[in-house]
Amino acid sequence: MVSVVMVIERFWPLIGGSETQCSQLSEGLISGGARVLVVTKRWEEDFPKEEDLKQGFKVIRLGIPGRGRLIDYFAGVHLLAWLLRNHRLYNLIYVNGGLANTFGSTAILMGKLLSKWVVGKVATPGELFFSGPRALSPKRFVHPLIKLRLLIAKRADYYTAHTQEVEDELLGLGIEKPRIRKFTNSVDEKIFKPPISTKVKMDLRRKLDIPLNKTVVIYCGRLVKRKGLAFLLEAWKRIIQEKGDNVVLLILGSGRNQPDSVESELRGIVEKEGLKQVYFLGEKGKLTVAKFLRAADIFVYPSIHPEGTALSILEAMSSGLAVLGTRVGGIEALIENKKDGILVEKESPEALFLGLNYLLNNPDKRIKFGEKAREKILKSYSSSKITADFYHFFQSLVKRD
Question: Deepest of 30, 359, 364, 379, by most Cβ within 10 A of its Cβ?
Fold first, then answer.
């Protein structure tokens, strides 16, 4: 039997692309017949140490609440002890990103010491670099402990890469090609789906308190610097000048427990500049996000750092929305410019303005892009197919024992 420990630094009730992918994969593995435990850090005091989720798996939260280097190390020690004490409960460890962080590298180390299968996911391009232009969080001085964690991170049995860029980075780090498996991120196409009629869309807007007679632009994701939202707000100034009160911008997400959070700065910009028709709606659960996407007209994702296969974009495309994205990382592989969305240059309010204005002025194009986007999701990014592929891969490893 496939018995998996999913190791991830952040998890429910914290919401983000990695957390959603982990939950989605866990559900899919369970439906295939696997046993799954999710082990994560206990970020806040009110997060229970253990919790059985309705999706069918248990979440174990380790460490003490808070942030900081010592708290990270304590969580790593707690994880080490938990994996050792519960080694009979699992035969495979899947590390969901953060492979060179304290939590992720501890999981890899213990998996190897305990002769368990270890598979690591590089969630974001650049996460295994700590200096240079490719680094996700560049440092002036790379501490020897970080170098040690990076060495451990390169000792997993296999790695999953969801974009060509991630695969190339792994090859550049000396990981042999046979140890790299391509598994794209996926989306639950049954939850994220287009509205079946205009009436359904308008009914959703009434329930969600969204204006009925305005064009709705939406962003869903973390409110962190690398998402480029300051450039979006700069572009929005011109959109308001052109369109007046006929458009609204909905921002779903937060910067909660993120070291590069810019939530307060973004709210400050809106208040200082007197930007109209901008609404911060906070974090929402998956089902609520799906409703907002079905009620919207345009999805915008102004990222300035190389992305993987951005889950927020997959969800928007699956919902039949026209997507405006920037030419970074895996976004370019997701969107075919002027076929199923629009691609513009990063860090450019002018480019974002022109892209948004094009979509606002061409509702027929928006509908066409959304239809093509939905077709692409059903063909290549369906969660039911991707999770089944994962299960067969994990099963093939366990059968070797």
Answer: 359
Phi-psi region for residue 341, left (φ > 0), alpha (ψ -120 to 50) or beta? left
The answer for 320, left when phi > 0, alpha when psi is -120 to 50, beta otherwise, is left
Same domain, 370 and 390: no
The reported pTM is: 0.84
Q: What is the mean pLDDT of the chain?
A: 92
Return all residues near 308 (Cβ < 8 A) that are at least 6 apart.
Answer: 122, 123, 124, 125, 162, 163, 165, 166, 185, 329, 330
Specify the pairing of strand 35-41 against strand 50-52. Answer: unpaired
Q: How far apart are CA 150 and CA 75, in angstroms?
A: 18
Note the pLDDT of residue 139: 60
The answer on 338 and 231 residing in a single domain is yes
Domain coverage including residue 220: 198-380
Same domain, 268 and 392: no
Residues 14 and 146 grouped into a single domain: yes
